[in-house]
């Protein structure tokens, strides 16, 4: 079994952010390799999350895309999402009307990673148009409408978008936290 290399992207008193990349053998695109990759992403993410939570007694969140797994640990409740940046023209069908208005100033990937990160932070499950809606983005504060257990709440969170280039691919990921 190969060792997993973990790279730290950011380390501070408030956050620890790291990522790992799979071996090339998991990057093949057959159905079998995709299933193996997903299972390994999930297992590696769970393991890294477990180690960070138990070692530091902090909040953690995990996300993966393609061959990359990112994990954040924080003293604040936190959510993270990573997406590959690609053609975004047809993707707006999964956005709320508020989010579609934000497309004039922000990319689909920026809005989607915010939405996913918030859903992980508040534990709503996979975001749909009506469970998590980003309504406003100011500097490093995002306002969102969250529908959970039949109730709608408006919340503000801090966020940071980061970019990662790996090989020929470019990824955008988003950290969202309560401060």
Helix content: 25-40%
Shape: globular
Distance between the termini: 40 Å
Structural class: alpha+beta
* Mean pLDDT rating: 78
What strand line-up does the widest sheet have?
A: 5-9-8-7-6
Please provide the ordered H/E string of secondary-structure elements.
EEHEEEHHEEEE
CA-atom Rg in angstroms: 16 Å
Number of helices: 3
Beta content? 35-45%
Please give the largest β-sheet. 5 strands, antiparallel
Strand elements, count: 9
Spans where pLDDT lies below 50 across 5 or more residues: none
What would a concise description of this structure say?
The protein is of the alpha+beta class and 179 residues long. The chain has helices spanning 31-56, 97-102, 108-122; strands at 6-11, 15-21, 59-65, 68-74, 78-84, 132-138, 141-148, 151-166, 169-177.
Structure description:
This protein is of the alpha+beta class and 179 residues long. The chain is 26% helix and 41% strand. The strands form two sheets. Strands 5-9-8-7-6 form a five-stranded antiparallel β-sheet. The longest helix is centred in the first third of the chain and has 26 residues, at 31-56. The protein is globular and about 40 Å long.
């Amino acid at each position: 079994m190969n060792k997993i290399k973990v790279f730290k992207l950011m380390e501070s008193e408030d956050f620890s952010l790291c990522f790992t990349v799979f071996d090339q053998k998991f990057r093949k695109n057959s159905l079998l390799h995709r299933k193996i990759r997903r299972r390994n992403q999930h297992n590696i993410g769970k393991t890294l999350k477990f180690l960070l939570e138990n070692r530091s007694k902090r909040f953690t969140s995990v996300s993966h895309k393609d061959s990359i797994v990112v994990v954040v640990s924080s003293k604040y409740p936190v959510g993270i999402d990573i997406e590959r940046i690609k053609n975004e023209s047809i993707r707006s069908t999964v956005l709320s009307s508020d989010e579609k208005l934000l497309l004039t100033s922000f990319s689909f990937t920026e809005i989607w990673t915010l939405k996913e990160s918030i859903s992980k932070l508040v534990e709503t499950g996979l975001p749909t148009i009506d469970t998590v809606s980003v309504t406003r983005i100011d500097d490093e504060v995002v306002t969102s409408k969250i529908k959970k257990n039949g109730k709608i709440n408006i919340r503000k969170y801090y966020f940071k978008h980061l970019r990662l280039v790996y090989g020929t691919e470019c990824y955008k990921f988003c950290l969202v936290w309560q401060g």
